[in-house]
Design goal:
The complex is a heterodimer. Chain A is α+β, with helices and mostly antiparallel strands. Chain A has helices at 24-37, 60-78, 105-108; strands at 5-11, 14-21, 49-56, 80-90, 93-102, 116-117, 123-126, 132-139. In chain A, 57% of the residues are buried. Chain B is of the alpha+beta class. Chain B has one domain (3-404, 446-475): tRNA-splicing ligase RtcB (Alpha-Beta Complex). In chain B, strands 7, 8, 9, 11, 15, 16, 18 and 19 form an eight-stranded mixed β-sheet that branches. A seven-stranded mixed β-sheet of chain B has the order 1-2-3-4-5-13-12, sandwiched between helices. Chain B has a two-stranded antiparallel ribbon with strand order 6-10.
Chain lengths: 140, 476
């Protein structure tokens, strides 16, 4: 289980997603968890299926943009809801794993379809205490 | 919004003079209450738009403008390719060619009332709506490319609707210049099973009653009569448009340093119109417009089938189909000179005035229908382009009520079940796969559409024709 915290923050018609943790990896994983929670309540999801995601980018901010958009893509084409994520980073390549299941509208009551992660409020930053945050606005 | 940086230049028009990197002024259309209620971010974002290369005249924000990403929602800006003008993926948005089409039923509120509940159930069963819903079509690669090039005409060729519908769709249902090869395989994969689906969020299919006629002549020309029922469908290019926006936003952001473009906000990432990247984006974006037109055409067919069961003589003729997230190459007169411009409208509707050559003959003497969506509990409006549309924001008008509360704030205030029950008590039937989604879209989360419509009317962007009240709403 990835340690850290996933939360959403308000942004007009859209949704802000923020992950935080002791490591950059944890912050990326929790940002994806915040994104997934905007679609389906995580407690209602059985993490029975695992999907692997790989992406690369020239800097941390674009890497977060690519990672969240890759998660959105997998949710859309597989009709899946996710509740748990793990991320490993080597240089500027991300190897991610997402656990979840196929959406059952009656059981999961999905709320909204994320269209894409934007570059607004896009941040990957380390605090003076050493912890990391990863965040952006997601268009829904 | 803090008014200190604004100059009031008309009763419903505020100007931000160009400062710093702004190449032109920014103009916001709103009355005092709307301007006071707008987020300061709208002024910041529309000023940023005013700094983009090749921008013409001014950057405009409509009366329903709210904080978006890059462009504000409700933003309009035009660029001249001959003046190093750019095309901006964030200036169109993720839901490319999201729009509204309205169908005339000819039946009355009295006709609908006895079958309202059954009609709502049938529509809910037949119109794929919500996250993860799929349509009946499964497009192979050849069919996908044909759809991307053929738009609503392709859908009609597949048996979804009638050829006469095309006259009532912008560009006659097919935007030229689409490039299927400029659309990524990821975008095509995302769309493969999403044709004929409504989507989620603020997308809807709504059965509405004409409750007020403000302009009887225009209403008659549009086929709108007091007490009669219309059906409005609000959706866009689904996953295909979302993925195209994602792909090109990234590519533009990475390419800008080599292209020598500097922007104040990465969500304004852009490319010169006269560049390979700009041309590819325009080709892909036009393909997404065609996808949206085909999608709304298929949903029209499904709606007609349901209505045909209850009202066999109702044809559900198409009044018009307008898109409100686009970039279109148009001819405008600027300073007495005719220029070809690439007009970005993000959450804004094209609103050509009477006599415009691109309007169908049956509507040409009135002006283009402009559809302003409200919320599921309040009114919507149908307006028309004005005689002097060209003098205002490249013939553009607003597109909706605009949110006044975030989704978070709405969730704190309302529960979906209670919203559905309260609206049922008011005679409005809501059907949605998501109770939380209903709460996020609660009527109170939106601005007063009456104020937006009045400001639009008084600013001369479009003129009020009729107001509509919801009877049945299928929410995605």
């Amino acid at each position: 289980m990835t340690e850290g915290c996933a939360l959403q923050f308000p942004h007009g018609a859209d949704i802000g997603v923020r992950g935080s943790g002791d490591t950059r990896e944890a912050a990326f994983a929790q940002a994806a968890a915040a994104l997934a929670a905007s679609v389906v309540e995580p407690d209602s999801i059985s993490p029975t299926e695992m999907v692997s995601i790989t992406c690369s980018a020239p800097n941390d901010r674009l890497l977060l943009y690519d990672w969240l958009n890759a998660v959105i893509y997998e949710m859309a084409v597989r009709r899946m809801a996710f509740s748990r994520f793990e991320v490993s980073l080597r240089d500027q390549t991300l190897e991610g794993r997402a656990w979840g299941e196929t959406i059952d509208p009656a059981r999961h009551a999905p709320v909204v379809e994320p269209k894409g992660a934007t570059m607004t409020e896009l941040k990957v930053e380390q605090s003076p205490d050493g912890s990391w945050i990863a965040q952006c606005i997601v268009d829904v | 919004m803090d008014r200190s940086g604004l100059e009031r230049i008309a009763l419903n028009e505020w100007r931000i003079p160009p400062t710093g990197p702004m190449r032109v002024p920014a103009v916001i259309f709103a009355d005092e209450a709307l301007i006071d209620g707008m987020d300061n971010k709208v002024a910041e974002q529309i000023s940023n738009v005013a700094s983009l290369p090749g921008i013409v005249e001014a950057a405009y924000a409509m009366p329903d403008a709210h904080w978006g990403y890059g462009f504000p929602i409700g933003g309009v800006a035009a660029f001249d390719a001959e003046k190093d003008g750019i095309v901006c993926a964030g200036g169109v948005g993720f839901d490319i060619s999201c729009g509204v089409r309205t169908l005339l039923t000819g039946v009355t509120r009295g006709d609908i009332e006895p079958v309202k509940l059954d009609l709502a159930e049938s529509l809910f069963r037949q119109i794929p709506a919500g996250v993860g819903s799929r349509g009946k079509l499964d497009l192979d690669p050849a069919a996908m490319d044909a759809m991307l090039l053929g738009g609503a005409r392709w859908a009609i060729d597949q048996g979804y609707g009638d050829a006469e519908d095309l006259d009532r769709v912008e560009e006659n249902g097919v935007v030229p210049g689409a490039l299927a090869e400029a659309v990524s395989e990821k975008a095509k994969t995302r769309q493969r099973r999403e044709m004929g689906t409504l989507g989620s969020g603020n997308h809807y299919l709504e059965v509405q009653e004409v409750i007020e006629v403000a302009d009887p002549v225009a209403a008659a020309s549009f086929g709108l009569r007091l007490g009669e029922i219309v059906v409005s469908i609000h959706c866009g290019s689904r996953g295909l448009g979302h993925q195209i926006a994602t792909d090109y936003q990234r590519e533009m952001a990475v390419a800008m340093p080599q292209l020598g473009i500097v922007v104040p906000d990465l969500d304004l990432a852009c490319a010169p119109i006269r560049s390979d990247l700009g041309a590819r984006y325009l080709g892909a974006m036009r393909a997404a417009i065609n996808c949206a037109l085909a999608n709304r055409q298929i949903l029209t067919h499904l709606t007609r089938r349901v209505f045909g069961h209850y009202f066999p003589s109702a044809k559900l003729e198409l009044l018009f189909d307008v898109s409100h997230n686009t970039c279109k190459e148009e001819t405008h007169r600027i300073g007495g000179r005719t220029r070809r411009l690439f007009v970005h409208r993000k959450g804004a509707t094209r609103a050509f005035g009477p006599g415009h050559i691109e309007l169908p003959l049956a509507l040409r003497n009135v002006g283009q229908p402009v559809f302003i969506g409200g919320s599921m509990g309040t009114r919507s409006a149908i307006m028309a382009g004005t005689q002097d549309a060209e003098e205002h924001a490249f013939a553009s008008a607003c597109h909706g009520a605009g949110r006044q509360l975030s989704r978070h704030q709405a969730l704190k205030q309302w529960h979906g079940r209670q919203v559905v029950d309260d609206l049922a008590n008011a005679g409005i039937i809501i059907r949605s796969p998501s109770s939380r989604g209903v709460a996020e879209e609660a009527p109170g989360a939106y601005k007063d559409i009456g104020a937006v419509v009045e400001a639009t009317h008084r600013a001369g962007l479009a003129r009020k024709v009729v107001m509509l009240a919801p009877v049945v709403c299928i929410k995605g």
